[in-house]
Amino acid sequence: MPPSGTDRDIHVPDPVDAVARDAETRPHPRSLPVPLIAAVAALGGLLFGYDTGIISAALLFIDKSFPIGTGAKQLVTSAIVAGALVGCLAAGPASDKLGRRPVIILSALLFALGSIASAWAGSVPSLTGARLLLGLAVGAVSQIIPVYIAELAPPARRGGMVVLFQLAIVGGILLSTVIGWWLGGDAGVWPFPYPGGNWRLMFLLGVLPAAILFAGMFLLPESPRFLALRGDLPRAFSILRGVRGSIAEAAEELRSILAQPREDGSWRLLFSRPVRPALLAGTGVAMFSQITGTNATIYYAPTILASAGFGAGAALQTQLLIGVTIVLATIIGLMVVDRWGRRTLMLRFLPVAALGLALLGASFLGGNPAGAGRYAAVAGLVGYEIFNVGSISVAIWLVGAEVFPLAIRGKGMSMVALSHWGFDLVVSLFTLSVVQALGTSGAFFLFAVINVLAWLFVFRLVPETKGRSLEQIEQSLQAGQFTAMR
């Protein structure tokens, strides 16, 4: 007789089978639909856009409450970017250790506290501190919310659901423009200490979406992938069953999650050679989203339309025009990103964005445009915003949330957000110098060339992740086939 301890007699139990059998004896867990989960989480993007945008209107009236010079205005404005740089780096390790959901809840609390502190500020230092607090929250949500949505969404619809975050950002910017216009003026409705007008109410209104996000997150589940990474298979399976609708589908997805190597999750792994292609793709898309000229064109849009003959109301008209344009562009990107793919969307749209900038630059050759040149300038500006914002700005948070292995996804997304905020700061510091050195026309031609370089970068180094599960993307990275995904 063969010995009883041969390999044929050894049976290794499947942990997923065990939790699946246990689930069959329990009631089907109730869960909110994934689109609703994504919409609630995306409120962090609305706060992101609102709190970064409302300062432009508030600064017009703050000096009626306390002295604030040009340098102080720049300090207050840039404080949110400085805070975001810290927030995005801190949120990555925190989300990998504590979970995605607690970090979002903490961010909502910081948004509320920062909004209240901004509204009650009685000096430049106190307002700067409040804006730094808001920046911590902005940086954190830019890191964690795309990851949270991506880890809950099914592969076929993951793109559109993650892009809800970007749509909320541009919607928040547009909302800040409308609120700033509505509350603008000298009439003070602020009934509390530190009188001075409606700029305080502009800041305080940010508490409303922060409170909804804070309360809503207590109704939403934790990421099942984070729970699986931490070994809590029953909870991970229960959440997957709730959002996928069947035991079989949940079991299959949980098995694919557990099949990935259990890495140590260190910063060293993030910068290792096997992960480097994902790091380059994620941070590169974030970089190009900033240096291709979006912020610069928005900054100079009032001047562009004023010189094109739009009269004294050019600033407000431009803000509203650009605000509506970037929202429509993001909706277009959301509608096609799962049908075309992330890579394909950028490859199709970026060349048209470059042409829009070239048209804009050409209209300023020889001075301010006149006659038909005015309409060419407007067409170039709007066309550029649609095709740049509708592609690379749509893809920035999505690509970053998809390409990193589970063990370091939080840290990887921190680097994507750091790239975004770092280059945002560079653009804000040097755009004026570029325009002064090259002229308006030359600056737009330069941004057109950078859009072409962005296209080349996407063509060579960014894979197509459409329809693939996060685990399939991770497998391609481990196999050295990451950039081969087309």
UniProtKB/TrEMBL annotation:
Organism of this sequence: Rhizosaccharibacter radicis
InterPro entries cross-referenced by the UniProt entry: MFS_dom, MFS_sugar_transport-like, MFS_trans_sf, Myo-inositol_Transporter, Sugar/inositol_transpt, Sugar_transporter_CS
Annotated family: Belongs to the major facilitator superfamily. Sugar transporter (TC 2.A.1.1) family.
Major facilitator superfamily (MFS) profile domain: residues covered: 37-466
Matches recorded under PROSITE patterns: MFS (PS50850), SUGAR_TRANSPORT_1 (PS00216), SUGAR_TRANSPORT_2 (PS00217)
UniProt-listed Gene3D superfamilies: MFS general substrate transporter like domains
Subcellular location: Membrane
Keywords: Membrane, Transmembrane, Transmembrane helix, Transport
NCBIfam families, sorted: SP
Main location: membrane
PANTHER family, per database record: PROTON MYO-INOSITOL COTRANSPORTER
Official protein name in the record: Sugar porter family MFS transporter
Membrane topology: Multi-pass membrane protein
Transmembrane regions listed in the UniProt entry: 36-62, 74-91, 103-123, 129-150, 162-183, 203-220, 278-300, 320-337, 349-366, 386-408, 420-438, 444-462
A Pfam family reported for this protein in Swiss-Prot or TrEMBL: Sugar_tr
